[in-house]
Amino acid sequence: VAMVWPFKRSAPTDAAVASGPAAKRSRRDNGSSGGGCGGCEQRVSQELLDVQLELQLLDERCAEDQISIQQRFDQSRRPHFDHRAALLQKVPGFWHSALCGHPSKLVAPFEVEALKYVAELDLRENLDRRGSFEVRVELAENPLFKERSLLKRVTFHDASTERVDVAILTAENDLGREILQAAASAERSVLGWLLSSRSGGDGLSVQEDFGDVLRRDLWQDPVPYYLAYHDTAAATAEPTVAAPESEAGAEGASGSGSAGNEGVASGGGGAAAS
What we know:
Order of helices and strands: HHHHHEEEEHHHHH
Largest sheet: 4 strands, antiparallel
Strand content: 5-15%
Oligomer: single chain
Mean pLDDT: 79
Number of strands: 4
Number of helices: 10
Strand order of the largest sheet: 1-2-3-4
Low-confidence stretches: 1-34, 202-206, 258-274
């Protein structure tokens, strides 16, 4: 299971060790790999293998200590996240704009209107020492769906086993049913991720899904994506036409020029008369 933190490493499974390089396999079979590397095994001493094993054990201990530190700081950050949530509720359509403004194209076209009803989004990380997490979405009153609160929880049991409790969403009308049907088959979708058993970070897709991006980036600082969405909307809006003002300015300039020319002509005539 891929963890949010880049330093987290999973302990190798027996299958991974068995299929790995001969130098790693020799830890388990005391050098009797039987490979045909032409004397390579003999040049790798048991002392060198023992040193490498100690390094691996230190890596695993480091990861465990870092999880404890991460959990402690998560508790310290929670009041700030709660304060931020209260402030964001005062910004109309914040999470809709932030989701649509992210460059990873998280939002599918069919759900753009539905996400306007997202009133609050919350992420709880590191619920245990294995990095389990949950995502909660609160919906405002709307004609599309019956539920107002969606919760998806991913529980990691070990490096290869997880349990996914998906969110439940029931359509209230035909449009809601169409959105849910499209979300069920969409490759990338916010609602699709909440309603599916995908946890994110499984390495099966080239593109990151909503869960990956939310945990890695969007949740930490969503404000730039809110601003980017509105900057893009403003840039693509029709520019206001300022022709009347420019025409008036041109006429004024033309009038001034004509008056000036007449003055020059008049002056020239006077000079000629004199």
